[in-house]
Write a structure and sequence with these properties.
alpha/beta
């Protein structure tokens, strides 16, 4: 079974002049022989939605008619997204009528789209993994930063983060309204 690695990240502004603008980034270091990056910006969104959108578009990167079995190994810095799979929260929410201990599950529309896209791709096995965010950005010591740069997962996460922020150079009118 082939394994494809994807690093996903979402970003949104929570205050100020650009409040509500955001986007996501996906970085595939080796998507069938080539690196691949995807990014889309949105006018009105939140970080949780962009994190989910990154996963949704990573799954959608695989054509429905694909025949070869593939494990999509996703690295995300969103514990919410990762634990929704690893802790089987999605299964629990779905069986509880999309309710959790706080009430209605947030962004149910995106969770349902993610589950549908997975169902449409029976050849695809999802392997969700959490990675600490912004490790390169936070490290000020050049020797320690050089050491971190040797870890392909830290670099992959940084690439997804940069892609997630590419919307910042886009005019408001050119950003998508929502999925």
């Amino acid at each position: 079974m082939k394994e494809i690695i994807a690093y996903t990240d979402g970003s949104a502004v929570v205050s100020g002049e650009n409040k509500g603008r955001g986007g996501f980034g996906i970085y595939f270091p080796d998507f069938y022989g080539k690196p691949k990056g995807i990014h889309i910006g949105y006018q009105h969104t939140k970080t949780g939605r962009t994190e989910q959108l990154a996963l949704l578009y990573a799954i959608r990167s695989f054509n429905h008619s694909h025949k070869e079995r593939v494990t999509l190994k996703v690295y995300s810095d969103s514990q919410y997204v990762v634990k929704s799979f690893t802790d089987k929260r999605l299964e629990k929410w779905k069986s509880n009528g999309w309710q959790n201990s706080s009430g209605n599950v947030k962004n149910r529309d995106l969770w349902e789209k993610i589950l549908l896209e997975l169902k449409l791709r029976p050849f695809l096995t999802l392997d969700m993994n959490w990675i600490k965010a912004h490790q390169l950005d936070k490290e000020k010591n050049p020797v320690a930063k050089a050491y971190l740069m040797q870890d392909p997962h830290i670099v992959g996460n940084a690439m997804a983060d940069k892609l997630a922020d590419r919307w910042r150079g886009t005019s408001f009118e050119d950003l998508k309204t929502d999925l």
